[in-house]
Design brief:
The protein is mainly alpha-helical and about 100 residues long. It folds into 2 domains: about 30 residues; about 55 residues, no CATH class. About 65% of the residues lie in helices and about 0% in strands. The protein has 6 helices and no strands. The protein is elongated, with a radius of gyration of 22 Å. This is Putative pentatricopeptide repeat-containing protein. It comes from Noccaea caerulescens (Alpine penny-cress).
Length: about 100
C-alpha cells in the first residue's frame, strides 16, 4: 500500500476549508487590509510632516498633534530615506508618544 506524503495529507485536510465561504471572506478582507492598510493616511499630512522634517523644523512638529501609526512611520521613512537626520527625528518623536511602539 502506498503512503501519502505529509504535505499531501495536510493539503487534503485543508482543501475543504479553502472552499468554504467564511474562509474566503476572511482571506479577502485580510488581503484588502494588507493591500490598502488598516487606516488610510491622508496625503496632505504625509506631505506636511515630511516637508517639516526636511526643513529641520522639528519644533513645529512637536506642536502638531500627530498620532503615529506603523503605516505613517513606514510611509515617512520611505519618503525620507535619503535624509538620515529626518529619519532619526521621526523615531525621536514617535518614542515620546505613550501609545505608539513601532512594529518592526
Amino acid at each position: 500500500m502506498l503512503r501519502q506524503s505529509p504535505a499531501r495529507v495536510v493539503a487534503s485536510r485543508l482543501l475543504p476549508l479553502l472552499h468554504s465561504r467564511g474562509f474566503s471572506e476572511a482571506s479577502r478582507t485580510l488581503r484588502r487590509e494588507l493591500r490598502v492598510g488598516h487606516k488610510r493616511i491622508r496625503p496632505e499630512l504625509l506631505e506636511r510632516v515630511s516637508r517639516l522634517l526636511v526643513l529641520g523644523r522639528y519644533d513645529a512638529l512637536h506642536d502638531l498633534s500627530i498620532d503615529f501609526s506603523d503605516e505613517l512611520l513606514n510611509s515617512l521613512l520611505r519618503k525620507l530615506r535619503l535624509n538620515p537626520e529626518a529619519c532619526i527625528e521621526i523615531f525621536n518623536l514617535a518614542s515620546k508618544q505613550q501609545k505608539f511602539r513601532p512594529d518592526f
